[in-house]
Amino acid sequence: MTQPGERCEKTDETWRNELTPEQYRICRLKDTEPPFSGEYNDCKSPGMYCCVCCGASLFDARHKFDSGSGWPSFWQPAEEAQVDKHHDTSLGMARTEVRCGRCEAHLGHVFPDGPQPTGQRYCINSVALKFDPAE
Ligand SMILES: [Zn+2]
Fold first, then answer.
1. Are 129 and 58 in contact (CB under 8 A)?
2. Closest among 53, 61, 56 to 22, alpha carbons compared
3. What is the mean pLDDT of each run of 10 residues along the chain (135 residues)?
């Protein structure tokens, strides 16, 4: 078990071996799954969404909302310290990329058009998440 706050660093080759081609493409090469394709887009069950790469708890189902975007959307991470944000100007757009705070997996982007109380919309790829249902 890795401890909270501990970094999880693996070589590119290790990630390539451990992840499915789709997970590798999205989490390590920063691709985006097609909208309405992900298995968690419509998921409304209580539980925790964890990083598919390292298992870190990232998003709580209580903070999930239906944004209509086609991707799982949250108005805040389970804990702010569990995600890293990076300025991203790829595709000619200024966006804020969201990464796993432990293993730097690309998760998605955060936009300032979410619901209250935060006004944030974390737009996350289902592929980057593994859902752990509440008991
Ligand atoms: Zn991770």
1. yes
2. 53
3. 71 97 97 97 97 97 97 95 93 95 97 97 98 94
Amino acid, res. 70: G
The set of residues, in sequence order, having a beta carbon less than 8 Å from that of 131 and lying 6+ positions away, is: 40, 43, 45, 47, 48, 49, 50, 61
Radius of gyration of the chain (CA): 14
CA 12 to ligand 1 centroid distance, Å: 14
Residue 123 catalytic? yes
Q: Please list all protein residues whose beta carbon sits less than 5 angstroms from ligand 1, which is an ion.
A: 51, 53-54, 56, 100, 102-103, 105
d(Cα 62, Cα 3) in Å, to the nearest integer?
Answer: 24
What structural domains and CATH numbers belong to the chain?
12-133 (2.170.150.20)
**Predicted model pTM:** 0.93
